[in-house]
C-alpha cells in the first residue's frame, strides 16, 4: 500500500466473507477482469523487484531501449539492463542444456517445452546511483564508447551528470559534473536593479546572485543568510542585504566577498529603503523599530585603503512591527507600514507624526510613493490597493487588485503608473490618476513574491514560488485599453460560465437528474450561430417580398441577388441554411444551446420545423428539439395566439412523420431478423450473440468461484 494514499482508498478493497455484494462494483470488476472483451489487450509479462519500497515516480529507458531506470521519492536511481535477442537466446540455450542434463538423469522427454526465461532474467539489475538530493527527473544516453551517461534533475534545482562504465566487473556510477550556479536553490524573496539598468540583484535563503540583464547570465554568486530585502549602494559596487535574523550584510561585487555584517534589529529586517540624497538608508524590522543609517568610509585593517561601512545614526520606536518603509522623493516624509493595518507618515528631520492612513482590513505588506510625492499607493493582504494623497492623507480610490494577497508594489519612474505582484501568480499594471487597470502580465505559475523596476522604467523583473525569475520589457506597441478590457471581460465571462450552476427547466422538479450537457462557451457559440442563421433567414425573406413586389410593379422578372453565404453552401434556400446550421450543433450540446436561445427566435424556428418535418428530413433530431422547446417555453407558446395554427400543423405532421419513421424502422428490423435466421440456418453459426448472455454466464462462474473460496476459508 502506498503510505501517501488516502484512507478511503486503502479501505476500499477490504471486505468480510459474509458481507453483501455490491452489484455495481461487481459489474465493473467483472468488466475489468475479462480483457478479451476489449479491443486493446494487455497481459502481464512479469515483475521486477526494486530495492526501494516507496512508489515509482519516473520510469524511463534510453533511446536504444537497452537500459531501464526508475526512481521513487528518494535520492536513489535504480538502473537495469535489458538483454538483447541474441543474449536472451544464449541464456535460453544454456538453460536448455542444463534441463537436458537433468532430463537424462531422470529420463524425461522433450524438456525444451518447459524451459522459459523469467522477466528478471531478461531484465537484470546493473547498479544503484545515489544522488546528493531527491530526484525529480532523469534521462539516459548510451555513448559510442560503451558508457551509460545519466543526467539527474534534483529537487534543489541542481543538475548532476553521472557516468557508468559498463565494461567493469562491478559497474559503479561516477559523478562527472554538476550545474549549481545557474539559479537559486530556494524562493527568491527580494530583487533590485542597479542604477545603470544593467545588473539585477536577486537574493534567497542561501545565496545572493547578480545577473546581467542583457545576457541573462549569472555573473556573481555570494553566500548569505535568509534574505528579505536588498538594495544597490550608490555606485553599484556594493550591495546591502537585510536578513531574517535581523542582520545587515554588506557585499563587494568586484571580489564577491562579504565586507561587513551588523546586528541591525532584534527581529527580521522586513524592509530597506535608500534615501533620495543617497547618503544613507532606512530599515524597518520586527523589533518595532525604524533605524536610520549613513554610509561611511573606514580604514580597513588588512589594507591601507578605506572601505565602505554602515553607521547607525538614530532610531524611531513604534508600537507595532514594521513591515515596510519608504521615503518621499524630497526626503521630507517617511511612510511606515505597521502590523496594525495602518500606515504612519512621519517628518524625517524631527520624526514627528504627520499622517495616519487607515482603511485596510489586513496589514499593508507593500507600498510606494510616486516621483512627485503627491500620491502613495499601499498594497495589503486583504487583496486591495489603496491610493492616498500625501497632502491630507485622504483615500482617492480603493482597487480590488488581486485574488490573493498583494505582495509587492512599485511606481514606474517619472509617472503615476505602478505595478503590483500578488499571490495569485499575476503581475498587474495600474494607472493611479484614472484608477484603471492597464494590463496583466501572466507567466508565473505560482505566487509572485517580489518585483523590481529599472530606473528608466523599461524593464520589470519578477520572482515567484515557481523558482523562476521573469524579465519583462516595455515595447513600443500602442496599448489599447478598450481591447484589454474586452479580453479581460471575455476571460471573466468564460470563467463564470464554467462555474455557473445549471438553470432550472420549467416542468422539472428540483433534485431530478439535470441535462446531460453543460453550459459552456461552445453551447453559447452554437446558440449564436442558430440566431445568426434565423436572422439571415428573416432578412432574405424580407428581401424576397420586396423583390416580388418590384417584379409585380415592373411586369417582368428581375434577377434576385443571392446572398454570398447561401452561394457558398451551393445556392441553397434560407430555410435549408437554417437546417444545415442546426444539424451542425453537437448532439450533447443541443439542449443547452436551445436553452440559451431567446424566445424571440422560437416562433420562426417552430415554423421552420413544421416545414422541415413535412419534407421528412431529420425527423428524429427535429422532434427532439421541438419537444424540448415546448417544454421550456410552454407558457409563452400557449399564450401566443399567432402560434396556435403552427402548433396544430406541427401536431399533425409530427405524428404522421414519426409513425412513418417507426414503420420504416420496424420493417428494417424485421428484415434484419430474417437475414439473421437465414445465415444461422445456412452456416450453422450464431450471429449477433447477446453480450448480456455471456456476461451472466461469467457472473455465475465468478460467484461459484467465490463460494468455493469462502468454503475453503
From TrEMBL:
Statement: the UniProt record of this protein carries the keyword Amino-acid biosynthesis: no
Intervals holding WD repeats: 181-221, 262-296, 357-398, 399-440, 441-473
Alphabetically ordered keywords of this record: Coiled coil, Repeat, WD repeat
Composition bias, Basic and acidic residues: 1-10
GO molecular function, one term: snoRNA binding
GO BP field: maturation of SSU-rRNA
Alphabetized InterPro entries for the sequence: SSU_processome_Utp12 (IPR007148), TBC1_cilium_biogenesis (IPR051570), WD40/YVTN_repeat-like_dom_sf (IPR015943), WD40_repeat_dom_sf (IPR036322), WD40_rpt (IPR001680)
Superkingdom of this protein's organism: Eukaryota
Any matching Pfam family: Utp12
Region annotated Disordered, chain positions: 1-37
Acidic residues bias: start-end ranges: 21-30
Similarity comment: Belongs to the WD repeat WDR3/UTP12 family.
Full protein name: WDR3 protein
Organism: Sitta europaea
Gene: Wdr3
Amino acid at each position: 500500500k502506498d503510505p501517501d494514499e488516502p484512507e478511503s482508498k486503502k479501505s476500499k478493497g477490504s471486505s468480510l466473507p459474509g458481507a453483501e455484494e455490491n452489484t455495481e462494483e461487481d459489474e465493473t470488476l467483472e468488466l475489468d477482469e475479462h480483457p478479451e472483451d476489449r479491443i486493446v489487450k494487455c497481459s502481464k509479462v512479469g515483475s521486477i523487484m526494486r530495492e526501494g519500497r516507496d512508489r515509482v515516480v519516473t520510469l524511463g529507458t534510453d533511446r536504444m531501449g537497452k537500459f531501464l531506470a526508475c526512481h521513487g521519492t528518494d535520492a536513489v536511481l535504480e538502473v537495469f539492463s535489458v538483454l538483447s535477442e541474441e543474449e536472451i537466446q544464449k541464456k535460453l540455450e544454456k538453460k536448455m542444456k542444463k534441463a537436458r542434463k537433468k532430463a537424462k538423469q531422470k529420463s524425461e522427454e522433450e524438456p525444451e517445452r518447459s524451459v522459459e526465461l523469467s522477466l528478471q532474467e531478461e531484465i537484470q539489475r546493473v547498479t544503484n546511483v545515489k544522488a546528493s538530493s531527491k530526484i525529480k527527473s532523469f534521462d539516459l544516453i548510451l555513448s559510442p564508447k560503451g558508457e551509460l551517461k545519466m543526467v539527474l534533475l534534483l529537487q534543489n534545482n541542481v543538475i548532476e551528470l553521472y557516468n557508468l562504465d559498463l565494461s567493469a566487473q562491478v559497474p559503479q556510477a561516477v559523478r562527472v559534473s554538476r550545474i549549481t550556479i545557474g539559479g537559486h536553490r530556494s524562493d527568491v524573496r527580494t530583487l533590485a536593479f542597479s542604477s545603470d539598468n544593467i545588473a539585477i540583484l536577486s537574493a534567497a535563503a542561501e545565496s545572493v546572485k547578480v545577473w546581467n540583464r542583457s545576457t541573462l547570465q549569472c555573473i556573481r554568486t555570494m553566500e548569505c543568510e535568509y534574505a528579505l530585502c536588498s538594495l544597490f549602494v550608490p555606485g553599484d559596487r556594493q550591495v546591502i542585504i537585510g536578513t531574517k535574523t535581523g542582520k545587515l550584510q554588506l557585499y563587494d561585487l568586484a571580489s564577491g566577498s562579504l565586507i561587513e555584517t551588523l546586528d541591525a534589529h532584534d527581529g527580521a529586517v522586513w524592509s530597506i529603503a535608500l534615501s533620495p540624497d543617497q547618503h544613507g538608508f532606512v530599515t524597518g524590522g520586527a523589533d518595532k523599530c525604524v533605524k536610520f543609517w549613513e554610509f561611511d568610509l573606514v580604514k580597513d585593517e588588512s589594507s591601507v585603503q578605506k572601505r565602505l561601512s554602515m553607521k547607525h545614526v538614530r532610531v524611531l520606536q513604534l508600537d507595532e512591527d514594521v513591515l515596510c518603509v519608504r521615503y518621499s522623493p524630497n526626503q521630507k516624509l517617511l511612510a511606515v507600514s505597521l502590523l496594525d493595518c495602518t500606515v504612519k507618515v512621519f517628518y524625517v528631520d524631527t520624526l514627528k507624526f504627520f499622517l495616519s492612513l487607515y482603511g485596510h482590513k489586513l496589514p499593508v505588506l507593500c507600498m510606494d510613493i510616486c516621483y512627485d510625492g503627491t500620491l502613495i499607493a499601499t498594497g495589503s493582504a486583504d487583496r486591495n490597493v489603496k491610493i492616498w494623497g500625501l497632502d491630507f492623507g485622504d483615500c482617492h480610490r480603493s482597487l480590488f487588485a488581486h485574488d490573493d494577497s498583494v505582495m509587492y508594489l512599485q511606481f514606474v519612474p517619472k509617472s503615476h503608473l505602478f505595478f503590483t505582484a500578488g499571490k495569485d501568480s499575476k503581475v498587474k499594471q495600474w494607472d493611479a490618476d484614472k484608477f484603471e487597470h492597464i494590463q496583466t502580465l501572466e507567466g508565473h505559475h505560482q505566487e509572485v513574491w517580489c518585483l523590481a523596476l529599472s530606473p528608466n522604467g523599461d524593464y520589470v523583473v519578477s520572482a515567484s514560488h515557481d523558482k523562476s525569475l521573469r524579465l519583462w520589457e516595455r515595447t513600443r506597441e500602442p496599448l489599447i485599453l478598450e481591447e484589454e478590457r474586452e479580453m479581460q471581460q471575455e476571460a471573466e465571462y468564460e470563467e463564470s460560465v464554467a462555474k455557473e450552476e445549471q438553470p432550472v427547466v420549467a416542468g422539472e422538479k428540483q433534485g431530478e437528474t439535470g441535462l446531460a450537457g453543460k453550459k459552456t462557451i461552445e453551447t453559447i457559440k452554437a446558440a449564436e450561430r442558430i440566431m445568426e442563421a434565423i436572422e439571415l433567414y428573416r432578412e432574405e425573406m424580407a428581401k424576397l417580398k420586396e423583390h416580388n413586389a418590384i417584379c409585380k410593379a415592373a411586369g417582368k422578372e428581375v434577377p434576385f441577388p443571392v446572398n454570398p453565404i447561401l452561394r457558398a453552401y451551393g445556392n441553397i434556400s434560407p430555410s435549408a441554411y437554417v437546417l444545415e446550421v442546426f444539424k451542425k450543433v453537437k448532439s450533447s450540446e443541443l439542449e443547452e444551446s436551445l436553452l440559451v436561445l431567446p424566445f424571440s427566435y422560437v416562433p420562426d424556428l417552430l415554423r421552420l420545423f413544421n416545414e422541415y418535418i413535412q419534407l421528412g428530413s431529420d425527423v428524429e433530431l427535429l422532434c427532439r428539439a421541438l419537444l424540448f422547446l415546448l417544454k421550456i417555453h410552454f407558457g409563452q407558446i400557449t399564450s401566443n395566439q399567432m402560434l396556435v395554427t403552427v402548433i396544430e400543423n406541427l401536431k399533425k405532421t409530427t405524428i404522421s412523420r414519426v409513425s412513418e419513421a417507426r414503420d420504416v424502422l420496424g420493417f428494417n428490423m424485421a428484415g434484419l431478423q430474417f437475414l439473421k435466421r437465414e445465415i444461422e440456418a445456412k452456416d450453422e453459426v450464431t450471429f449477433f450473440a447477446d453480450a448480456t448472455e455471456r456476461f451472466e454466464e461469467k457472473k455465475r462462474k465468478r460467484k461459484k468461484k467465490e463460494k468455493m473460496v469462502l468454503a475453503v476459508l
